[in-house]
Amino acid sequence: MSMSISPLANPKGTKKLCELCQKPAYLQCTKCRVTFYCDVAHQQADWNSIHEKVCELLSSIRTPAPFSCFQADRDIHHMQTLKRLEHITQLSHAAAKSWVSEGKYSEAVPAAQLSLRCAIDIYGRDVVELVPAYLLLAEASIGLGSLSQAESCLSQAEWMVMKNPGCSRTVLHLLHRTLGHLHSAKGDYSTALLHFANDVYYASEEFGLDSVVTARGYFLMANVFMKQEKTDITNSLYSEVASIWHAHLSKLMECYSQKEHEGAQYFDVAQCAEVNQMLSVMLEAQQQDVNTHPAYSTTTFNSLGQRALLSHSLAILWFLCNDHKKALEFGRKAAEFSQQCEHNSLAESIQDLIQQAETHLNPEQTPIIHH
């Protein structure tokens, strides 16, 4: 996978730098032969994060093109290189986002770094197109506890946004969301709430108040209020998030049942991990409240109905992600909570989901109808 670099192989005065830390490199990837590392640890980290997926692609863009005296040939090669760079940027960005969603922040860093370098090669420096990569690096740094590194990345992102006042509301909501994460990690909850409020504002302007994108902002605000021990506000926001996501997932399930998007991938790995984390946190939080304060079981959020709704949402999520075992597990939990509710409005849809999950797990058996 790697080999030592012979100093005689490099022209005089040139140095190879490590792909991850930019220190002098002493190892070379034996497959692409255009990527270098300071040690085996960095080579392995890069391979696990992203290099395995882009090794051959990097070879084609980092190898000098044969000389051509025809401008048309040079233009064609340039366009091909840009397309490959765009492809690598997308692959590395998706990989970094997936690692962050799974909480694997060390693995996210090499992929985010590659995404940033490729974006710079495509667009140049100090442009708003680099902001998503800087935000991913900041998120990974926050997860690793490297808050100074996160601040540096966010300063770069803020500077680029300031230089491009016409940037999209999507970029603005993502910037404020990441700034909120940073200040929350620093314990500056007032500033964190301000940024999350801006996140919600720009997201709602772009996607609508009832969008699942906006709901993520509500969820992050609720987490801060929870740290401030403001239970009523936390529960109110969690309830809103739960309702938005249940409505969204129910619509997707309806489309699935009607085969409107047969064979469609409803969630990628990163999205599934993020939604699962969000719904699970809310379900666990309300269960803890019920255990600590039994009287909460009669309130809006901490009711059996809310637990049924969240469990049903998780069941739909896992069903659409083709994990029918987990779908059945949460479906049965939802049914248990639902049966104890006075107004059992979810019962039919829960039983339908359980039946479909059982059919997928046991295709040759007649589905069992639960009552």
From TrEMBL:
Residues 18-55 form the MYND-type domain. It holds the Pfam family zf-MYND. One of its GO terms (molecular function) is zinc ion binding. Keywords: Metal-binding, Zinc, Zinc-finger. InterPro entries: TPR-like_helical_dom_sf (IPR011990), Zinc_finger_MYND_domain (IPR053248), Znf_MYND (IPR002893). The keyword Mitochondrion does not apply. The keyword Metal-binding applies. This is Zinc finger MYND domain-containing protein 12. It comes from Ictalurus punctatus.
